Amino acid sequence: MRSRIIFILTIALSFYNSALSLGQSLAETSSGPPPPNEGGGTMNGPEFPIDDNIFILVGLGLALGIYFFIKKYRSNDIPA
Length: 80
Known about the structure:
Helix content is 56%, strand content 0%.
């Protein structure tokens, strides 16, 4: 069990390190963020109001996680 935890932790930290190193730029070439487009603020495609329903999405995710946790717990329950 300990070797599995160490393996998962190693993989997670490796991905974390990769994401940090790709997200940084060199100080010599860094000139700040690029200027915004001069498109006049028009959007291409439909808007999805995720900000209005974020609590519903979090609640559904929590409920789904609890469902799978209970399902796994019951499958490991060995009758006497």
